[in-house]
């Protein structure tokens, strides 16, 4: 059976926390995101300060599901501590992990901005941004 064709070329996800406590909500966001059949998913970890083994498992699951659908998962801009954790877990051998030069880094959300719900999505011009719980 042929994979479902992609409906979006790119989905970007900004993650501020990724650990066991937020795993159910984060998993639900990624489940929703994968129903869009993206060609490429970028997980921006530039504002994430903590990641644990459960989060690594989630990243691997998202990678596996995307790969089966001919998609690609990229992890962008982990801080040095998280990059070391990903390296020690050998995720840098499985996932694309990239660092953007400061002039190309995405603009952070406006201070005090809170999404209307625990999960909010904005889709425009073939790109989607999904924010999970804060």
TrEMBL record:
SUPFAM superfamilies: SpoIIaa-like. It comes from Micromonospora orduensis. Residues 1-95 form the STAS domain. Residues 102-134 are annotated as: Disordered. Pfam families: STAS_2. This is STAS domain-containing protein. It comes from the Bacteria.
